[in-house]
Amino acid sequence: MFKEWRIKTVFGIFFILFLLVIWKLVQWQIINYDKYRVLAEQQRTINMEMSSPRGSIYSADGSTLAYNQPAWGVYVNVKDIRDGKDSRSKYEIIRLISPVLEISEDILDERINMSLNYVPLKHKVSEDTVSALKEIGISSLRYEQEEKRVYPEGRMASHIIGFVGKDDIGRESGRYGIEGYFDGDLSGKKGFVTAEKDTFGRLIVTGELESIVARKGRDITLTIDRGLQRIVEKGIRKGVEDFEARSGTVIVMDPKTGAILAMANYPNYDPNEYWNIKDSSILNNLAVSHVYEFGSVSKIFTAAAVVEEDSSNLKAKVEAHTGCIEILDKTVCNWNRQNHGEESLVEVLQKSCNVGTYYFARKIGSQKLYDYLLSFGIGKASDITLQEDATSFLKDWRKWSELDLATASFGQAISATPIQIISGISAIANGGERMQPHIVSTITDDDRIIEFEPQIASTPVSKDTADSVTDMMVEVMKDGGFQWYVQDITNYHLAGKTGSGQVPYQDRPGYDPTKVNTTFVAYDARPERKFIMLVGLQEPQVGGYASDTAVPVWVSIFKELSVYMGITPIE
């Protein structure tokens, strides 16, 4: 009996063990199959990430504006120091490498944490620096190959190009400008290799190999003319310094295609050392991001709308007035608060008459003026392929009062960015067709070339209207209150208009009487229509209106631009 009980007990134990084994097999092979498959794969294989070279950026003439250069990461094997494999002490190593890496001894002391095994000291170090370190002969130093983004032209076109920096989680990515907008195209696609390894972690050359090939980033060629870019950068810097402006912007565009030939702001920065700037706002491309009330340049849009609606307005006259009028208990005045007498539309533009512009705007009303402004590109993003591209606010015409109609007609209480303004005026220069502003010419990869063809963005007015407004703008250049500054270029056929916009307070309603933003836009009025250029100064402290700030800067740049582009005087 006892023997039978022992047999049953042993059998029961074996049966339970058998069930446990079966249960474990079920867990391993069915329930947790995926988990253990991955673990086994990790023990058997090694995964390697293959970097993808970032694409380059070129100017229109093929000059390189941004490219990747081989670089090195410098590390120290702290375990070698700790175990005495390196004959030098931590502090002797620090003393020797500090001047070569250009890192203070105190900072290196903090970085080389003796409780760790492997510590990075500096990234993106040049080949020359690595050679200098190797000559010292420190056995615990290690070097890993990296890539460094290089901008060979330094500050030139920095606001157009942007830079490559760290994102919020420490990954390198394009920031601002072309680098930011086209980060996905430029960065390419990383590759991966999965290979078999032995028990010591060494690669088995004859083993199975799976790979996803890395794709190099695409190259981007801009429409920017490198020689012209240098001219405008020098000119806008001098203008900002001469007139003690907060900042300055210049854009040169081909009105027939919408291609940006040059674009610059000052202050600018060096994208090779973007971290050295003291004010992060300097990183913004003001040409596409600075939304401001642009003043009397808007009178061109009003004049074009009025003529397009009824060409007889070219001969209409504004009745004499005192220089100021009352609208909804508000006083609206001319810039000089003077009576200009009876005026035609061209005289309204020449004298930059606010009251006269409002009289003409009343002929078409709020809805039509609003629709024309939208068609000229005011109130909507320019869609230029730069990361900071912003849009202005244009209140729906249904919410306009009579005062809104008045102020919108001469460029107050409405706003735009410089790229929106030059794009709108370029429609007048181009016979009524507003071309889509673009700054990229081609995007190239191994398989194809993507070309950016000129596209019509809108057609706000007819060719006849555009030609009539151009004629009026030519008269403005001849007698628009700034003849002293353009006397050296009167033998050129140019059409232009100034604008001086008030600057609103930041903390309360109303305008700051001590500040103004000034703008001058003018273009080649010959049939060739080779260029249109905008110059804007933000809050100049020397001078007052656009006629004695933005105009002289424009003229100074034009004198060099005309030679460079072959703009010939009138014979």
Structure, explained:
- There is one protein chain.
- With 571 residues, this protein is α+β, with helices and mostly antiparallel strands.
- The chain folds into two domains: 83 residues, Penicillin-binding protein 2a (Domain 2) (Alpha-Beta Complex), CATH 3.90.1310.10; 340 residues, DD-peptidase/beta-lactamase superfamily (Beta-lactamase, 3-Layer(aba) Sandwich).
- The protein is built from 20 helices and 23 strands.
- Strands 2, 3, 4, 5, 10, 18 and 19 form a seven-stranded mixed beta sheet that branches. Strands 12-11-23-22-21 form a five-stranded antiparallel beta sheet, sandwiched between helices. Strands 1-8-9 form a three-stranded antiparallel beta sheet.
- Helix 12 packs across helix 15, helix 12 crosses helix 18 and helix 14 packs across helix 16.
- The model has no long low-confidence stretch (mean pLDDT 88).
**CATH homologous superfamily heading of the largest domain:** DD-peptidase/beta-lactamase superfamily
Strand content: 15-25%
pLDDT averaged over residues: 88
Distance between the termini: 133 Å
CATH level-two architecture of the largest domain:
3-Layer(aba) Sandwich
Q: Specify the helix fraction band.
A: 25-40%
Any idea of the CATH class of the largest domain? Alpha Beta
Number of domains: 2
Number of helices: 20
Structural class: alpha+beta
Main beta-sheet annotation: 7 strands, mixed
Provide tags for this entry:
571 residues; alpha+beta; Penicillin-binding protein 2a (Domain 2); Beta-lactamase; 5-stranded antiparallel sheet; 23 strands
